[in-house]
Write a structure and sequence with these properties.
The protein has about 200 residues and is mainly alpha-helical. The protein has helices at about 5-10, 30-40, 40-65, 75-105, 110-120, 125-130, and strands at about 20, 140, 145, 190-195, 195-200. The two termini are about 40 Å apart.
Length: about 200
C-alpha cells in the first residue's frame, strides 16, 4: 500500500516544525583543502621535487665552482636563497598540476589551460585560470541530474538539496539552532536532506 507520508518525506515535504538538515556532517575547511590537494597528479609532485632538487643542485654547483673568493658565493649565503627558490619552483609546478586537474572536473579544456599556465610568464596564466574558471557542476544524489549551486530542489526528481527554515522558508546553515531571519527554534528533531555530489568528471 502506498504511503503518502513516506513519499512526502522522501521528496522533502514532511510537515511540522522540523528543520531540514543535511544527513552528512558539515565538512571543515581542512577536509575541503585535502580534497583539492588530491586532484593534483603524482606527476606534478614528481616534477615539483625535481624543480626543488635542481635549485639545490645549482646552489651547490655555484659554491663549488666559484673561484673569485666573493663572500656571496658561500654556502651560508646561498643556501637560504636556494631553499626559497626551490620552494617557489615546486609551488609553481604544483599550481600547474592543480590547474590541470581542476580544469578537467569543471568541464574546461585540460590541455589548453595547462599550456596557458606553463607558457604565460610571471604566473599570469595561473591567475587568469582562477579568474575565468567555471563553477563546479553538482549532481543530484537521487537521480544524478546536473544541479546548480544554490538549488533548493532537483529540477528532475524534486529531491530537496539544502536546509530551510520551516517557518519562513529561507535557506539556513545545517548547524544553526535558530533561524537567523525569523528566530524560529529548530529544536532537536531533524529530517534528512540529500546532499548534492560534486561531479568528478
Amino acid at each position: 500500500m502506498h504511503d503518502p507520508r513516506a513519499a512526502q518525506e522522501r521528496s522533502g515535504f514532511a510537515g511540522g516544525n522540523e528543520l531540514w538538515r543535511f544527513e552528512m556532517p558539515v565538512r571543515n575547511e581542512t577536509s575541503r583543502f585535502m580534497d583539492e590537494i588530491r586532484i593534483i597528479s603524482p606527476w606534478a609532485y614528481f616534477f615539483a621535487f625535481l624543480g626543488f632538487a635542481a635549485a639545490g643542485a645549482a646552489i651547490v654547483f655555484a659554491t663549488l665552482t666559484d673561484k673569485t673568493g666573493d663572500r656571496f658565493y658561500t654556502l651560508p649565503v646561498l643556501l637560504p636563497l636556494g631553499l626559497l627558490g626551490g620552494i617557489i619552483i615546486a609551488c609553481y609546478i604544483l599550481l600547474i598540476g592543480y590547474v590541470n586537474g581542476d580544469a578537467a572536473r569543471r568541464g574546461m579544456s585540460r590541455l589548453g589551460w595547462t599550456l596557458l599556465a606553463i607558457f604565460i610568464p610571471h604566473a599570469l596564466g595561473i591567475v587568469l585560470y582562477f579568474v575565468l574558471r567555471k563553477p563546479r557542476t553538482l549532481n543530484c544524489p537521487q537521480c544524478s541530474a546536473t544541479v546548480e549551486l544554490g538549488f533548493g530542489f532537483c529540477p528532475r526528481c524534486r529531491c530537496r538539496l539544502n536546509a530551510v527554515c520551516p517557518k519562513c522558508q529561507r535557506s539556513v546553515n545545517a548547524s544553526d539552532k535558530f533561524c537567523p531571519y525569523c528566530g524560529f527554534d529548530f529544536g532537536a528533531t531533524v529530517n534528512p536532506v540529500s546532499v548534492p555530489v560534486p561531479s568528478q568528471s
